[in-house]
């Protein structure tokens, strides 16, 4: 089967119309029908509206029904749950996809992403107050001040603070794209905090195009910084 579908040109509504016309063909095999439903599901997902998400979910489920042993139908359904932030459901469905195609980089990356998101959620609200932090680490007041002083001397710290401001929306409208620009400035100056937060933005696709390789590059650079710098990173994150 060979059809012109303008998905890569981001003409999503036109692509949906073409996929819908293809599904009207009477000689489609179940496998080909599953492929078209899968592709239309991915296209609906790109529209990012409440209704289009429901259509994407419905098409993914139809793809699974047409071809129950094909991994991509499950992957499409999991992607809908990811966009809806239904992390547990997404992970369970991705395990089905992985069992059918353990070599798929798409599935492996998606599982990694979902696990990181669930891990981040489980850690939310567990910030350690300053006094408890000093008690847990055995730091004296002077040692704590020295760490903070070191943190304030790190190159690019002003850019990091600007990045935090736009990332969270402190006294400005939240803007991930601007946050990424400031974090990148700090990262290029060798600041591990900028590296870490830039890596997270690439991981989630916030303000930048989602890119797991770029994310891993910056996260590894941040992890390979000196312990004192990492301690400062922990302090600012708290």
From TrEMBL:
Q: What is this protein called?
A: Uncharacterized protein
- From the UniProt annotation, give the residues forming the signal peptide: none
Q: Which Gene3D superfamilies match?
A: Tetratricopeptide repeat domain (1.25.40.10)
* GO MF term list: molecular adaptor activity
Superkingdom: Eukaryota
Xref: Pfam families: ChAPs, Sel1
Entries under InterPro entries matching the protein: ChAPs, Sel1-like, SGT, TPR-like_helical_dom_sf
Q: Which SMART domains match?
A: SEL1 (SM00671)
Q: Name one GO cellular component term.
A: exomer complex
Q: Which GO terms describe its biological process?
A: Golgi to plasma membrane transport; post-translational protein targeting to endoplasmic reticulum membrane
Q: Sorted alphabetically, which keywords does the UniProt record give?
A: Repeat, TPR repeat
């Amino acid at each position: 089967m060979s059809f012109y579908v303008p998905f890569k040109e981001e003409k999503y509504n036109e692509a949906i119309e073409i996929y819908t016309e293809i599904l009207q063909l009477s000689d489609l095999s179940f496998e080909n029908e599953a492929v078209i439903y899968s592709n239309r599901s991915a296209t609906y997902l790109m529209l990012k509206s409440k209704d289009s998400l429901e259509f994407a979910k419905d098409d993914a489920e139809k793809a699974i029904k047409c071809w129950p042993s094909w991994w991509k139908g499950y992957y499409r359904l999991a992607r809908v749950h990811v966009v809806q932030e239904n992390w547990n459901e997404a992970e369970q469905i991705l395990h089905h996809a992985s069992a059918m195609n353990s070599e798929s980089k798409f599935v492996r990356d998606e599982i990694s992403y979902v696990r990181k998101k669930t891990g981040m959620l489980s850690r939310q609200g567990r910030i350690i107050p300053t006094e408890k932090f000093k008690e847990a680490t055995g730091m004296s007041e002077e040692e704590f001040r020295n760490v903070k002083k070191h943190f304030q001397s790190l190159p690019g710290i002003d850019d990091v603070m600007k990045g935090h401001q736009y990332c969270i929306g402190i006294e400005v409208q939240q803007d991930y794209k601007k946050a990424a620009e400031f974090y990148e400035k700090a990262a290029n100056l060798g600041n591990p905090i900028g590296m870490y937060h830039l890596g997270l933005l690439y991981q989630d696709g916030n303000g930048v195009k989602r890119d797991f390789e770029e994310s891993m590059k910056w996260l590894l650079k941040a992890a390979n910084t000196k312990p004192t710098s990492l301690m400062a990173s922990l302090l600012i994150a708290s």
